């Protein structure tokens, strides 16, 4: 009996040691946990006002399964992060109406700077160039929309004990109460674009957009190339999540943005029982269903309520994306695979696996979010291979500002005034955004296509010229016409092309706004960049054999026949520039005028004449300085000579005086007849 007890005790001890070793081996993490392993049958419910988490339908086992998810995180994620002293939290940027900073639900969860100050950004005031209010993130909305959206994330963070590993970065993109642009619940494409750009620059890992276009503005959003470019760029480093909207519309009839953009996870709202919320937009333009009915939120401190809509479904997906990135980070720290590029992470969330839960709408099935399966099973099927090219798009900017395809501009080859030069920078983007091999960008070919119309209005290509290769290309339009800048890429399976159209008009010329200037002025900063300063209307030439070359401002982009140049009223030259060399004896002024021949009937003169002063070298300012210096030198030399002469004379006088004193004594001593 004693021996049996000893063996049993040893077995118990060995088992205990084994369990302890397993708990202390963070390298054993491999992300192979399954939902069944963590189906805890009882957890302590967190209380929020009159609500506790046990009463929330979407926390249940057949939905988010928070109890099992908590067990997974506490077993597989947090211990690894703690063992590695991980202190680089995942950041979720909430682009919305701002945040009520007095709400204690956010205590310790907001992103702070090195000095412990809460970080935030206001894109509306940035769009108005008001730098004094860039940090104004106060939620002024009556329904506290932004605060409620962020509170969904905050409560999930607390439920899983991730307070040290996930932070919220509030970005206010809505109109403030003192704005005349619209109500405090309204956004526009500019404020959203700036908000996304700032969130990415700040280092956000996830960007939540619980906002969408209206029915009337959907097409405008769809064609906003500048916004799409910002999203495409941000999507390479951050998972962008957007609400699909609440119009009960199928995307086959109307798409709502930014949820329908490539590179954005569009979120639809599900309801209890595996159904969908009655107002949710839906369709293949969006990606995943998440709980969006009777979601617990907090608008004011210690105040909680249930609300519905895709605005509340989106932050649940954003939290899932943040947890997925934390899980992947923990796996890497435990010796597993490195965290893949962001587009792979985003793809993992949106990919419809065969065993995924789904929501059926109008006979079509859509993926239903399962966070536990995502972080414990789906990551095992992660495929980081580059995807094949499925399309190409082209965008353009002029002087840093977005230009819309199909627009027009005026030829302006030199000056940067107004809208800038008629130089456009083009960028090509391959789809899927951020998920194609970057090396393929080198094979993109750029062509300039000039179009013409026949008498019947039929358009055809007049010429096609290659102007570059690679992901970007620039071109200076120096003549009028209808043009297209075409980007194309040929893969093993197909050729994809996209074209940016622009109509270019020849510049009009107005003599009242033109001046005769020296030719070097045209390349000066004052002319090219419009930095200001007065324009000289004359020049002085000294001596003989010197000349000046003149031209006319604003003429470089104008269609004209000739320029006639006159000197003192007599024609002297015809041409774009005029080199004038005065003849004869210096001392005369010449008046130069210019007449621009635009057509047989339009022959305006440049409004202001140009004067050439012809003077002798003796009148040159340098000669005045030289003569002055010479005069000063002569005077100084004379003064020195006078001083020296005076000193010499004084020295001679002193010598004579000394001789007069000493001579008698010498004579007395040497006298031959002196008697003692």
Unreliable parts: 1-44, 665-676
Instruction: Give the strand tally.
Output: 31
Question: Structural class from helices and strands?
Answer: alpha/beta
Major pleated sheet: 8 strands, mixed
Helix content: 25-40%
Give the amount of beta strand, in percent. Answer: 25-35%
C-alpha Rg, in Å? 41 Å
Give the rounded overall mean pLDDT: 87
Please report the number of helical segments.
12
What is the global morphology? elongated
Question: Terminal Cα separation, in Å?
Answer: 161 Å
Short description:
The chain is α/β, with parallel strands linked by helices and 676 residues long.
Question: What can you see in these coordinates?
Answer:
The chain is an alpha/beta fold and 676 residues long. It is built from twelve helices and 31 strands. Strands 3, 4, 5, 6, 7, 8, 9 and 10 form an eight-stranded mixed β-sheet that branches. A five-stranded mixed β-sheet has the order 17-23-22-19-20, with no helix packed on it. The radius of gyration is 41 Å and the shape is elongated.
